[in-house]
Amino acid sequence: xxxxxxxxxxxxxxxxxxxxxxxxxxxxxxxxxxxxxxxxxxxxxxxxxxxxxxxxxxxxxxxxxxxxxxxxxxxxxxxxxxxxxxxxxxxxxxxxxxxxxxxxxxxxxxxxxxxxxxxxxxxxxxxxxxxxxxxxxxxxxxxxxxxxxxxxxxxxxxxxxxxxxxxxxxxxxxxxxxxxxxxxxxxxxxxxxxxxxxxxxxxxxxxxxxxxxxxxxxxxxxxxxxxxxxxxxxxxxxxxxxxxxxxxxxxxxxxxxxxxxxxxxxxxxxxxxxxxxxxxxxxxxxxxxxxxxxxxxxxxxxxxxxxxxxxxxx
Length: 314
Fold this sequence. Notes:
Layout: H1 2-23, H2 29-54, H3 60-87, H4 91-100, H5 106-118, H6 120-154, H7 165-169, H8 175-188, H9 197-218, H10 222-227, H11 229-233, H12 236-254, H13 258-268, H14 274-282, H15 287-312
């Protein structure tokens, strides 16, 4: 019963509120972006610090990093490439589809769903996976988006790809990674967490849910979902069948810890993240495709994948 309460309070309610805020123009898109920035630059200071202060720094870090970097990012992109190459003719659409397929809603929605189902430690482990995907996004995802943008701008000319590494790697959005590093240092040096920290950590998980999921509801674009529904649907077998099955197999092969197996399986079926929409907007790709993939996979996760996970994995 408690799980159902938190699913409603922290998942469905912010989605509904965000959608109606947009429909009735209660807040602007700038306010929505401010909430996303608040989540990335402030809330993750506490949740990232607390997560890496809590977990055991052992060989499982490598397993979780592999899941975030390879299994949830590179592999979905590789599996999506044939469809993008043969079915989507425009560069703006090709780039949006390929980049969106590599970006999962791990840190916010995946972390929250893990917290609701399995508690604080599960949330902390998910942040390790999210960190690995964030690193992928920084060193491969965003440069790939910039490559498509430069190629589009060059037209028929041959483009010499020149990523702007300074603007990619140095920004306030990387502050969460710094807090995770500090948490890991405190952990390794066996610095005890203050008695009140658990209460602060749990509160920030719920604050982060609203700051991260309300903008998801605000940015739900059902028109784009209708226009690009067939393109978006093509990623569903990858996201909700191939990757979750592989995630479970790899988890069982490398660990006997039931918590880690459940976490890796859950994260394997996370939907496309809101960052896919943000990146495609930033680099002038086909945002409609990213929005359609985001909307459709989020709906499948919330209404089908996550309930099945709760039913069969816990």
